[in-house]
Amino acid sequence: MNSNKDASLNREIGPIGFSAIALNGVIGAGIFALPAVAAAKSGNFSPWLFLICAVLIMSVVLSFARAASFFRDTGGPIQYAGLAFGPFAGFQTGWLVYIGRLAAIGANISLMVTYAGWFWAPLTSGLGHQLAVMVVFVLLAVFNIIGVRQSMNVVFLFSLLKLAPLFLLIMLGLAHIQPDILIHAEFPVSGTLGETILILLYAFVGFESAVVPAGEARNPRKDIPRAITFTVLTITGVYFLIQLISVSALPGLAESKTPLADVAEILMGATGAALLTFGAVFSIGGNCSASMLSAPRMTYALAKMGSLPAWFGAIHPRTRTPLNSILFYAVMGLVLALSGSFVWLAVVSTLARLLSYILGVAALPVLEKRVEQTKGQFRLRGGYLVPAVALLLCLWLITFASMTAWLTTVAFFALGSFLYLLSSRKFKPSVEED
Question: What is the dihedral of CA 164, 168, 171, 173, to 10 degrees?
Answer without folding.
Answer: -140
